[in-house]
Amino acid sequence: MSNSMKITAGQTSTRTLTDLIRAMDGQRATTVTYVDSKGEESVRTIEIHNILTTAKGEIIVKAMCRARGEMRTFSLEGIKAYTVHRIRFVLAVPEEKAGEAFPVAHFVSRAERLIDLELERDYPAPKLKLAA
Predict the structure, then answer these.
(1) What percent of the chain shows pLDDT beyond 90?
(2) How many angstroms separate the CA atoms of 31 and 33, rounded?
């Protein structure tokens, strides 16, 4: 991937998601221009560890923030531009605290597969009862 900033408004969300999944799978640091829910813009270099969907269908990115040194959550819609770097992850992920489960990341090669995994998680196949 090149080190030029990609503007999310100039591409599909599938393309953005695919690039972020590749960054996660390759454990590559990513710099994002992000606008939070208050409308404040910031530039952060993050290490993506998980990409999830909420109950409302929003896509969120769970990542270690290099500036803060802690796990942060970013909405895909809030990411306005990004650059995937060659540099690998350097931050240690904090251990789970009681009651704060950090789900295992999905390592997938295609955005479609990530969507399949999320649907399987949200709508699991019914468990069959075996006859005795």
Answers:
(1) 55
(2) 7
